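Side project, low priority. Logging it here so it doesn't get lost.
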Amino acid sequence: MTTPQKIDVALGARSYPILIGDGVARNAAHWAEWAGTRKLAIVTNTVVAPLYADALEQTLGDRQVLRIVLPDGEVHKTLDGVARIIDALVANRFGRDDLLIALGGGVVGDMTGFAAACYQRGMDFIQVPTTLLAQVDSSVGGKTGVNHPGGKNLIGAFHQPRAVFADTALLRTLPPRELRAGLAEVIKYGLICDAEFFAWLEAHADELLALQPAALAHAIRRSCEIKAEIVARDEHERGDRALLNLGHTFGHAIETATGYASWLHGEAVGAGLAMAARMSMHAGWMAEADVTRIERLLHAVGLRASAAPEVDAAAARAAMNLDKKVQRGRLRFILMRGIGRAFVTADWPPEALERTLVAQFG
């Protein structure tokens, strides 16, 4: 185990730490500090449970621990999945002062957090993300929820975790495809507000793909720092927090149009970043050279820049009309004036969107 790095998400009474490092989830002292001696339920899935659930239970010691194992995959991120968690809590007489642990990727974290928000009108939970995407993005910020056949994350609540344990040791069993998907969210942070970090990613892409510890720790820390700063300014996404959705409008359209079955969330976001860059260029806000750099980095980490031919322009338009960022009938986009200079706008040229949809979706 290494000495963890600590980032605080500053939200007043709801503030919490993000602990980053090799072995942070196996440190009993962390659990004593943030979980106390409460009754616990570990929510995980059929892939993660055989890898890490036993070790976590051993770390938790003599506490009363319930294990809830869900099916794996985005397709199971539904109200029925949350009902399974709540049914188990009711059957085992969990109280509002007990605690849930989300041991898994973004799907497990989102569902566990939503169950925690709903059960007895709110109980504590701790995030133990096991994918890079979850460690740098979905585990931080308190967005919880599930999908609906009509759209991504249409049902949910803001409910902040008690703590986040981003244990880099858990990434050693991560399939390469999941690692690449997580890197899309890392790239997103550089594009939002840190051109220097984007350039660092260009220079260290191979090290990240090789799971080199120092490179991973830096990428996770900087990503979490950026997200924590934005969430602290705008917890409920009434302003700056919408920047964190860069690439997600197009990405969610890909996921919805394909039934959440063939694209990982991060893969869709990666393509969405390229599409947001293209739309920014077509609107006259971004140089083509920057678009080329973005697409080159996506390709360097094994991500696609287009969803064609799986998704066509008509299906993308239909999915985007249900996006949560539609306000007063107008879709807000997160676009860029350059690398590290993202902004939110509902005032965009329709022809820029049309050119992007036709070019990127076919």
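Brief comment: The mean pLDDT is 94.
Revisit when time allows.
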